[in-house]
Write a structure and sequence with these properties.
The chain is mainly alpha-helical and 270 residues long. The protein is built from 14 helices and no strands. Bound molecules: iron/sulfur cluster (SF4).
Length: 270
């Protein structure tokens, strides 16, 4: 859809919202059915113009998006991301200040030892395995990379406890590479909206790398994670607050109009 047409449609929906024809909340059953259909690739692919418009709005609403894992350098970022597997960022942030106070380098982590690391991160899920991996990856960084985090995917993925998603986060946040780390939120948003449909996180990542315009790729990962974490949440997405509600293809949308306030904000940035 050309941008002019999208803006006209947005304007019309905005007017409708002001007249009070806003909410049409759908039941949980309808939403689950819609998610199942979306996951099977039943939604139409977004056009280039729609994708451009969606990211233009994300950028207008949040020009400099940041991740929520606390860290001070590539090593502490790597440690925080390893700890965040199947855990919340908030939970990781509660444990890492005490850990980083004692061990903010691979050398200090190895010296601290597995038992002490385990004790310091015991509030985080899978802490036994994670403590073991932190010691092993720190040893490997010292032995093979001079104690530095390598800015290289293969070298990162060769570290214990580091997979593609972790490598993508480190490459993006620490080294400014335009990678897209697909976590549970991005996987859901990609499939649900029809923006990037795929059966696996890797499929969704490849699709996003194909369709997201180059100039938005560096921040795409944060915009989509924050969108999935705070707006397009799993159980009851907050479509009434969503900046891309009019573009989203999900048949379970809980409103049929875009959020007026946010559209006004996006319009200012045009
Ligand atoms: S309208 Fe927004 S919040 Fe609702 S399903 Fe679509 S992307 Fe998610």
């Amino acid at each position: 859809m050309p941008r002019k047409t999208i803006r006209k449609a947005t304007k019309q929906r905005l007017q409708a919202a002001r007249k009070g024809r806003a909410a049409r909340v759908k039941g949980a059953g309808a939403r689950i059915k819609a998610d199942t259909e979306a996951a099977h690739g039943a939604l139409p692919q977004w056009t280039k113009a729609e994708i451009e418009e969606a990211f233009r709005r994300f950028a207008a609403a949040n020009p400099d998006p940041r991740g929520e894992l606390e860290h001070v350098d590539p090593y502490t970022l790597l440690v925080a991301v390893v700890l965040s597997a199947q855990a919340t960022d908030a939970g990781v942030n509660k444990a890492t200040p005490a850990l980083f106070k004692l061990a903010d380098t691979p050398q200090k982590m190895v010296k601290l030892g597995e038992a002490r690391v385990r004790e310091l991160i015991k509030t985080i899920g899978l802490f036994r395995t994670k403590a073991k991996n932190l010691i092993a990856l720190s040893r490997q960084l010292i032995a093979q990379h001079g104690g530095n985090v390598p800015p290289d995917r293969a070298a990162l993925e060769a570290l214990p406890g580091v997979g593609r998603k972790t490598a993508n986060v480190v490459l993006n946040v620490a080294f400014g590479e335009p990678t897209i780390a697909v976590d549970t939120h991005i996987f859901r948003v990609g499939n649900r909206t029809g923006l990037a449909v795929g059966k696996t996180p890797y499929d969704v990542e490849m699709k996003l790398m194909e369709v997201v315009p180059e100039r938005y790729r560096l921040h795409a990962h944060h915009w989509l994670i924050l969108h999935g974490r705070y707006v397009c949440v799993a159980r009851r997405p907050l479509c009434e607050k969503c900046v891309i509600a009019d573009l989203c293809k999900w048949p379970g949308k809980t409103v049929n109009v875009p959020a007026p306030q946010l559209h006004q904000r996006a319009a200012v940035a045009r």
